[in-house]
Amino acid sequence: MRKSEKLIPCPFCGGKGLTKEEHSFSDVQSDDDHHYFWVECKDCGARTKITHFKSERYGKICTKEIFKAIREVTEAWNKRV
Questions:
Q1: Distance, CA of 79 to CA of 63 (rounded, Å)
Q2: Is the pTM here over 0.85, yes or no?
Q3: Three-state secondary-structure class, residue 2
Q4: Which of 7, 46, 50, 56 could form a Cys-Cys staple with 17, CB 3.0–4.6 A?
Q5: Gap between the Cα atoms of 23 and 10, Å rounded
Q6: In tens digits, what is the pLDDT along the chain, a chain of 81 residues?
Q7: What is the DSSP string of 29-46?
Q8: Residue 52 φ then ψ, to 5°
Q9: Contact 41, 10 (CB under 8 A)
Q10: How far apart are the first and last CA of the chain?
């Protein structure tokens, strides 16, 4: 994420927005890991949509996809009114 893409304050309470990330690892039936990203207000809990992508279980995590997901949730957060 570029420095110019900082998160603006929460549109509901003025609190600080935080980029959140969660990983769901594959089970025996799937060879994919799932990665989830969203922005959430530290104070009131308001949040953006969740952006999701899959990567291969034992492959390299695609940093291009991570940055794309972070950019998407940052833009979604900053466009809220």
A1: 24
A2: no
A3: coil
A4: 7
A5: 25
A6: 444 479 999 999 999 999 999 887 655 555 567 889 999 999 999 999 999 887 765 556 677 888 899 999 999 999 975
A7: T--EEEEEEEEEETTT--
A8: -130, 140
A9: yes
A10: 22
